[in-house]
Amino acid sequence: QVQLVESGGGVVQPGESLRLSCAATGKIDSINGMGWYRQTPGNQRELVAAITTSGRTHYSDDVRGRFTISRDNTKASVHLDMNSPKQEDTAVYYCNAYTDYEEDYWGQGTQVTVSS
Q1: Host H or E run for residue 59
Q2: Of 6, 11, 93, 101, which has the fewest Cβ atoms less than 10 A away?
Q3: Tens digits of residue pLDDT in 71-102
């Protein structure tokens, strides 16, 4: 099993920067990819950004060029640097870990509100 704990959510103004972090514990050696998803009321959870063990990254079109995902393999942590956030980035953000055993693990979610 893998446990994920997110931190760093909160309220920011449009254009301010915010960093989300996620720390993994448990069977971290089995983790392959990690990423961030987000969800708004009434909508499905959607991929924001993902990163593999080798450092390959993927971004949704909505955030490419504004958000940056990074990963510290030693500490089994992943970060999401949100630069120039917009009001439409307001959502609950979830950390995800995908293992070599094709298991998906999720954090509890952290609220990000972008508001002036």
Answers
A1: strand 57-59
A2: 101
A3: 987 768 999 999 999 999 999 999 999 999 99
